[in-house]
Fold these 2 entries.
Entry 1:
Amino acid sequence: MKQIDSKLRHLIMVAFVFIAGAGFSFGQKKANIVILATGGTIAGAAGTSVQSGYTSGQVTIDAMVNAVPDVLKLANIKGEQISNVGSQDMSFEIMMKLARRIAELTAGNAVDGIVITHGTDTMEETAYFLNLVCKTDKPVVLVGSMRPSTAVSADGPLNLYNGIAVAADPNAKGRGVLLVMNDWIHSAQTLTKVSTTAVQTFMSPIRGLIGTTAYGVSEYYRYPYSKFGGKSEFSVENVTKLPRVDIIYADADMSADLVDASVEKGAKGIVIAGVGNGNMTKAALDACVRASKKGVVVVRSSRVATGNVGRNVEVNDDELGLVASSDLNPQKSRILLTLALLKQRKLDEIQKLYYEY
Ligand code: GLU
């Protein structure tokens, strides 16, 4: 009896230690986040704290993380330097490198989310590109800053903290590639840069925010309306070179020359940053029709910050052989067309992509 008692006591103790241990580790379980650094102002340094000129990509991942040591309470962090450029020099090569690394890192159970530090200038291109080609439903979050790390009231540390918190948050899963800056969570499909200098530079006009975050505590309002991730048909697996697509800016008295030159230089696609509802002069429109007849896909987008470019509204796209960008701005229209042209597609199929993505 005594023996049974001591065996039972032993068993109870083992069970207690196991349950307490498991409870402790669940309570303490932190997400595993990988930071992929690409450069930009968030890693930038200036000579003084009140200087607007600075060199981007000067600060290491460790130094960025050390500026916000509290992130280590949110997640286990590892970092990798993918590139070190101001994002005006962001290239498809780097975007494809990012896409491949994200696919590798998110394939197993070891990584819960990805944070990409990036310059703000072309963040919308990289975010939208990754939104189309990354298949994971784990959070992939871009963060940047408008002020270098050495500035008074640098915005990078809190953006990084919030970005890591969102990447570590299971509620952020399945919402596509996100951008977290200045407390706002944007979808890659909607975000656009609207100010050259203000910290509140990103907006998601018309469709609105995915959510908000305050010191890492986040609220989510919606899922993206467009296709992305696992539902996207695009992939850059085994792709080494992407087709040339040019953006041409329209204005009053626009000539046909740049459209013709783009075709001559071998563009497979042209996006017009049109005036108003994707319009341009008669001369430019005629050049677009010439291009279309030669098999170059011409997409009419708009230089206007918000609103749709409608098919067959002011321009008869059916008759002229053109595509309307719907709600994609010129820079995102270019990304979609570049990926779409990896495969032979009819014009109406390309038009459908603009409604779906
Ligand atoms: N032009 C630089 C870049 O995009 C700095 C702008 C920024 O990061 O905010 O990387």
Entry 2:
Amino acid sequence: MSYIIEGKTGSWEIVVGLEVHAQIISHSKLFSGASTKFGGEPNSQVSLVDAAFPGMLPVINRECVAQAVRTGLGLNARINLQSRFDRKNYFYADLPQGYQISQFEHPIVGEGSIEIELAGGETRQIGITRLHMEQDAGKLLHDQDPTRSFVDLNRSGVALMEIVSEPDIRAPEEAGAYLRKLRQILRYLGTCDGNMDEGSMRADVNVSVRKAGEPFRTRCEIKNVNSIRFVMQAIEIEAARQVEIWENGGEVDQETRLFDPGRGETRTMRSKEDAHDYRYFPDPDLLPLVIEQEWVDGLKAALPELPDAKRARFQQQYGVPFYDAGVLVAEQSVADFFETVAKGRDGKLAVTWVTGELFSALNRTGRTIENSPVSADALGKMLDLIADGTINGKIAKDVFEDMVETGESPDAIVEKKGLKQVTDTGVIDAAVDAIMAKHADKVAEYRSGKDKLFGFFVGQVMKETKGKANPALVNDALKAKLDA
Ligand code: ADP
Ligand code: MG
């Protein structure tokens, strides 16, 4: 995919690398036993460690480490059996320790990659540089009192993963595809809920521009962007700003910027800090983190099937086309629903019903797949009724509508409404005779060569049988009688 900005001095290419902060799903914090539950009363989930009382000692949470390793495995990345925690020193009112415990030189996860899919089914690999664990900070509340600010430390010490990409992204759409894919993988793994609007996943967006074939130029980092749409917008706007600067003979300064979606601009937050500004050093309260290959292997063996593998399997096992398979695996709940419907049945028919009638019913009723008005089992039973000839495909749509409205089983609806397909050739022949008698003129036209009228007769006979006749038998009967 190419995204080119045409300037007055020629064409510019954009270069983007993303740093994603993803909150780890765990009951307790990275170095304390305090709860991580969302939405608690301010400061009700704060241990002495999180409040940084003197003399408190951090103790690593094994489950958080497991989650980081699972994520690394899901990103096809190298797992480092030895890693280390460092102190990143800075002062801010939401950080009582005066430093954040993070991993700097020795992260737990090294190089990996994510495959993204672009319009038209083209795929690309985006490199992952590293994944490390770190603590989240607290939250300042500025809107509770006219003259004072408060601090809520519930989030202080919650475990985050920072997932850093290589500067491999070349278009806003690629950044969007990367974030969607990353979120999908995290959700499948159950290591982060990926809810950007609740702040459990947020992105720092590094942007630079260059002429094709040139080395990279200076980048700017746009901090804490909290939706995929905003990330894409911020890239577009920031790249245009940089092109303008270069083309007017200026220099882009390396700095940290803020995206203001309301005004459609990015603006300076602060000049870019360097690693040495943070006075990183190994946290003396924590031993190096050493994990065993055997433990990693165990975690790997227990990983769920991930979206790429599931998609390939759906294509192969159920004959689902590439595009549809992507739609089905986008959310695990949809994939599970589909598989319950498809198992032991016609996979292509299953995918048409799930992505067609079912999705539109969900849309119409404002439901999600989790509280679908029609269960996967019920939809499967309905497909069985089509397969064994009890109902035809057209009647099936009416049955399905009825299932959406009443929640009754397909058998009950077919029984109650007398929708059973008519396969009795005596009944079908009688209907054909009646229609031919009623439209003697059309029969004459047909017999004098107007073949196209055949469809008209089929329609009439179906109507006569209230849509219940077996279409193949109707065809046979009509052919026999009209051509007689
Ligand atoms: P820091 O730790 O100072 O933020 P890193 O070297 O770790 O710097 O890079 C952070 C992010 O910036 C990475 O996602 C990387 O891909 C991206 N990046 C590095 N150089 C460039 C560049 N010239 N243009 C765009 N993004 C870049
Ligand atoms: Mg950074």
